[in-house]
Design brief:
Blueprint (H helix, E strand, L loop, with lengths): L9 H10 L7 H8 L5 H26 L6 H6 L3 H13 L4 E5 L5 H8 L3 E6 L2 H13 L6 E5 L12 E4 L4 E2 L3 E2 L10 H9 L4 E6 L13 E7 L2 E9 L6 E6 L3 E4 L14 E5 L1 H5 L3 H8 L2 E2 L7 E3 L8 E11 L2 H10 L2 E8 L6 H8 L7 E10 L2 E9 L2
Parallel strand pairs: 1-2, 1-4, 2-3, 4-7, 8-10, 16-17
Antiparallel strand pairs: 5-6, 7-9, 8-9, 10-11, 12-14, 12-15, 13-14, 15-18, 17-18
Helix pairs in contact: 1-3, 5-6
Amino acid sequence: MNDLAPLLTPEGRALLDEVRDTDPAHELAVATRLRRDHPAELVSAALGQARLRQRAVAKFGAEDAARMFFTPNGVEQSTRRSVAAYRAERLRAAGVGSVADLCCGIGGDAIALARAGIRVLAVDRDPGAAAAARANAEALGLAGLIEVREADVTEVDTSGYDAVFVDPARRSSKRGRIFDPEAYSPPLSWAVRAALGASRAAALKIAPGIPHEAVPAEAEAEWISDGGDVKEAVLWFGTAPGTIRATLLPGPHTLVSRGLPDPEVRPVGRYLYEPDGAVVRSHLVAEVAEMLDGGLIDPTIAYVTTDTLTPTPYATAYEITDRLPFNVKKLKALLREREVGVLTVKKRGSAVEPEELRRKALPKPHGTASVTVFLTRAAGAPTMLLGHPVR
């Protein structure tokens, strides 16, 4: 799968076009037919690449994914196009004209940077990733702005570039997802040193679960979500040291910390607000609560409550119809009485698994009504809140 050379030949490209929309359920029949006229290894490589392109549509869009080349790790670990474009625009707005993209993978970020008019040196030590990044720059007409180099990023001289972008590997074939920043490859401490040496700016892509105390004093920390899903955190250098922000895409909508104290705890009101994950990760729930003139339902739970409806991009509002102590039998009876057929279960501060509650409380639909149940705590007590999202 990492040897792209055969797929870049005229025969390989023609085969890729032919298998582009192959249904995985029909792969065996398609492979059997194509092997009559093409080498078996080439057919397998083309079908494998077609599968990767289909998976990549969610991150890169159908048009780009159909032209790009991927590795299995590249599809999993590459940045979503919308997030990469946002980050590239921040660098462009900061006056950056050239970037050393270290640990570039298949080139997703390099592509976004080049499309923003920034010259890129894309570096990765993995031969397959570097080959894919080079092929992608050519496929998307960006080879004039992207130089791809297969090398160890710790040995690359970045002094000739305005900025450094580092996306260290946070997964291991043996251990899976890596949570310790010093176990990244390269370690976060090395990436910070590289960032501090940049002439104009730097950005380090890190896991959104990074502890706030691990953020260097010289950095601005930004948590980014896209469509409600937290995608990453970024440490920015050369911008606003000490700043904490949450950015929501599309938009972008950006909320900056003002160092507010924890909100007061209030009884559950008519509306419950579920802050976006980037807001929660960046510890900016207090800023949202002040914006809504609301309070928390519990000092340890990131749900904001009010009696008035205030639209905000930073939280999803639900109108609460019922508040019950945790009791599955009572919930089951209430759902039957209201002819509920669609049950959405959310939890925060509860040990109960949503699927377990769904199975017990609604073993079979009773009608067409829909209800959202929040498994949580209110003023320290296990609580079920029933409601529906405000449209």
